[in-house]
């Protein structure tokens, strides 16, 4: 919060309050005047007003009320302005109270390099099995659900997703027949050829095998 402590009579005043986006409304009471603003989805509200030139110097209290938050009483000391000393207790000039809000920006989503990529890899002599990609998506959802129950704050692995929100499964065609991947180093070969193939960025996850590189914490959300 930003609010001045001492202001001259006749000067402009601005009070800025930072908010959680779930706060529905905030109001600032300046003696008999009350400025209110609907703030759902906003991360900041600003109250602006100009003190009356005839306000009496002294200490005043401005109650700030926001839904879901305790009332705060902001102290404001008014000092004499130029010219004749003020004698009235009315703080704000009529018609000079305004409010404005700043909407919270949408969160910046992490790019593919910070997300896991699901791959359905097929050898050169294999064909795609109908429904297998959907089964991979269902497995991802089940695993993420398990992570959510085992972590504080429902932290889960982050996956590359399509417009529908479902994990994207990339079908990758490998250059060798299935027999070439049945040797002891077969899976490492699959992983390497998938990594070097033309595809979107992001560490590949093949079935239940480990990723091609150890992910950092930014790949979990």
Highlighted features:
Immunoglobulin-like, 221 residues, rod-shaped, 5-stranded mixed sheet, alpha/beta, 11 strands
Please describe what this structure looks like.
By secondary structure, this protein is an alpha/beta fold. It has two domains: 6-103, Sandwich (Immunoglobulin-like); 112-219, no CATH class. It contains two helices and eleven strands. The radius of gyration is 30 Å and the shape is rod-shaped. Residues 198-204 and 206-216 have low confidence and may be disordered.
| Helical segment count | 2
Adjacency order of strands in the biggest sheet: 1-7-6-3-4
Average pLDDT number: 78
N-to-C SSE series? Answer: EEEEEEEEEHEHE
Radius of gyration: 30 Å
Portion in helices: 10-25%
**Overall morphology:** rod-shaped
Given the helix and strand composition, which structural class is it? alpha/beta
Biggest pleated-sheet summary:
5 strands, mixed
Biased composition (Basic and acidic residues): 185-196
Region (Disordered): 185-221
Q: Which helices and strands appear, and what pairs or packs with what?
A:
Blueprint: E1 6-8, E2 12-18, E3 25-30, E4 33-38, E5 42-50, E6 58-66, E7 72-79, E8 98-103, E9 117-122, H1 132-150, E10 169-173, H2 186-196, E11 204-205
Parallel strand pairs: 1-7, 9-10, 9-11
Antiparallel strand pairs: 2-5, 3-4, 3-6, 5-8, 6-7
């Amino acid at each position: 919060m930003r609010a001045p402590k001492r202001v001259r009579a006749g000067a402009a005043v601005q009070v800025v309050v930072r908010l959680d986006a779930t706060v529905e409304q905030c109001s600032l009471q300046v003696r008999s005047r009350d400025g209110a603003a609907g703030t759902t989805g906003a991360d900041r509200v600003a109250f602006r007003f100009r003190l009356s030139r005839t306000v009496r110097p002294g200490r005043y209290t401005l109650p700030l009320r926001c839904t879901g938050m305790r009332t705060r009483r902001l102290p404001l000391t008014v000092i004499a302005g130029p010219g004749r000393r003020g004698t009235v207790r009315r703080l704000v000039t009529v018609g000079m109270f305004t409010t404005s809000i700043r909407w919270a920006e949408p969160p910046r989503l992490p790019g593919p390099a910070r997300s896991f990529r699901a791959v359905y890899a097929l050898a050169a002599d294999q064909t795609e099995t109908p429904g297998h990609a959907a089964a991979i998506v269902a497995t991802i959802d089940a695993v993420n659900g398990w992570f959510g129950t085992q972590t504080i704050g429902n932290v889960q692995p982050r996956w590359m997703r399509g417009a529908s929100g479902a994990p994207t499964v990339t079908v990758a065609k490998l250059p060798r027949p299935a027999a070439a991947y049945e040797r002891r180093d077969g899976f490492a070969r699959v992983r390497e050829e998938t990594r070097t193939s033309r595809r979107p960025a992001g560490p590949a996850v093949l079935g239940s095998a480990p990723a091609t590189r150890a992910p950092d914490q930014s790949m979990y959300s």
